[in-house]
Amino acid sequence: MESVLDRAAREFPAVVLTGPRQSGKTTLLKQVFGKTHTYQSLEIPDIRTFATADPRGFLDSYPSPIILDEIQYVPELLPYIKEKIDAERTRTGQYLLSGSQNLLLSANVTESLAGRAAILRLLPLSHRETEGYPQLPLVWENVASDTTRTHSSPTNLWENFLRGGYPELVSQPERDIQLWHSSYVQTYLERDVRMLRNVGDLSQFQNFLHMLAARSSQLLNLTSLARDLGLAVNTIKVWLSVLEASYQIVILRPYYANIGKRLVKTPKIYFTDVGTLCYLVGLRDFRHARDGPLSGAIFETAVLAEIMRTITHSGEVPEVFFWRTVAGTEIDFVVRSRSGLVPIEVKASATPRRTMATGIENFQRDFGNLAKQGFVIHLGNECLPLSKTVAAVPFTHI
User: Fold this and answer.
1) Least trusted range by pLDDT, from 154-158, 283-287, 328-332, 353-357
2) Which of 63, 266, 349, 376 has the most CB atoms less than 10 A away?
3) How far apart are CA 181 and CA 169, in angstroms?
């Protein structure tokens, strides 16, 4: 994202960088702009009090160009930043703002900095980033479905899935995975959840997290979830909005088109980071993740994370859906690309088979020219055609 961030700062007076806690926002901003911008965190209590009590005085004391970290703690500052920007509208890159919550930021940014700020998202590291090949195109952008990419093959993908993509765990492989994720979840509960919504019973919210993780990659049945937790459906909806706003989950909507079929309209739920998912469902060993009943959900989550992160870190908004008919025909992911709809099936198998292409071929038949080449993402090492319009591609090649 470095080049995207640099370009945005050259074109807009302000840049807002959001993403989940610990995804590397501060590190990235300091790395790209550390020599040209001063830095101030609004998480520090006395700084926060100063900014809240006297916003104009604060901005005079900490003039631009500046990085203001954790802006969600003082959203009241945004109208005064707008005032500063409007005084020197042609100056770009004046204010670089970061925050780990989307709900508060988006409303305030839309109101105060409309047309003045570029809004970017930083998610945990993608597989290609951890392997050192961040600029590789996504497989469907490479018309030949490049079969020569034999790099990027970790000794054990499942160990990486268990670890997840947060930079601290990737850069420090000796860290205790369970302790880190436990601390992360606790910090998230204490900070983000309490700030976004007044959740009275955090232990019940934590139970909700664990129960939701067990349903990852499944259709989201709010009534069933509410019944199992003994809560109202409206409470579940509010809590889901908290998770989505703080980038902990992705709610995948179904793709609709008027093709004369009855389609399932219920969304599906995924966790943003596969390591968080593994921790919440109680997996402590990669063998249990690989061989257990959740292996399919884990691998599906990892593939979705790779797609979302790669598109997001290129500065674009990912348009990813799933497709499912009432009759049972399903495509795990449908990505809307520049050229059309890319159907993707995910199979937690190292042996691609011809039958794995059936669902994709049905989708291609229904959508005609809108549907492009399809891909079956698998755990093996081979790139091979399954049909004229479907290719099997290893996870390490996407």
Assistant:
1) 154-158
2) 376
3) 9
Q: For CA atoms 20, 21, 23, 28, give the dihedral sign.
A: positive
- Nearest-Å Rg of the Cα atoms of the chain is 22
Backbone φ and ψ of 159, nearest 5°: -65, -40
Q: At what angle do helices 233-245 and 102-112 cross, to 10 degrees?
A: 70
Residues with Cβ within 8 Å of 214's Cβ and at least 6 positions away in sequence, in order, are 281, 294
Length of the chain, please?
398
In angstroms, rounded to a whole number, what is the distance separating the alpha carbons of residues 85 and 122? 24
pLDDT at 82 exceeding the cut of 80: yes
Task: Give residue 11's identity as a one-letter amino acid code.
Answer: E
| Residue 371, pLDDT above cutoff 60 | yes
Q: Pairing relation of β-strands 390-394 and 384-385?
A: antiparallel
Residue 327, pLDDT score: 76
In the structure, what pLDDT confidence band is assigned to residue 108 with cuts at 50, 70 and 90?
Answer: low
**Confidence label for 382 from pLDDT (cuts 50, 70 and 90):** confident
Q: Answer yes or no: are the C-beta atoms of 268 and 220 closer than 8 Å.
A: yes
d(CA 389, CA 205): 45
Euclidean distance between CA atoms 73 and 264, whole angstroms? 40
3-state helix, strand, coil in the chain (%, to 5): 45, 15, 35
β-strand pairing of 341-346 with 374-378 = parallel
CB of 152 within 8 A of CB of 131? yes
At residue 144, does pLDDT exceed 50? no
For residue range 196-241, list pLDDT tens digits in order. 666 767 788 889 999 999 999 999 999 999 999 999 999 899 889 8
Higher pLDDT, 178 or 259: 178
Q: What is the pTM of this model?
A: 0.90
Residues 6+ apart with CB under 8 A from 322: 252, 253, 254, 255, 268, 330, 331, 332, 333, 334
- How far from 84 is each of 28, 74, 234, 356, CA to CA, in Å? 24, 16, 41, 57
Cα 82 from Cα 382, distance rounded (Å):
53
* 110 or 8, higher pLDDT: 8
Query: Could you give the dihedral angle defined by the CA atoms of residues 229, 235, 240 and 241, in that order, rounded to the nearest 10 degrees?
Result: -170
Bridge partners (DSSP) of residue 377 are 346, 393
Q: Which of 203, 284, 195, 283 is nearest to 242 (CA)?
A: 195
Q: Phi and psi for 125 in degrees, rounded to 5? A: -65, 140
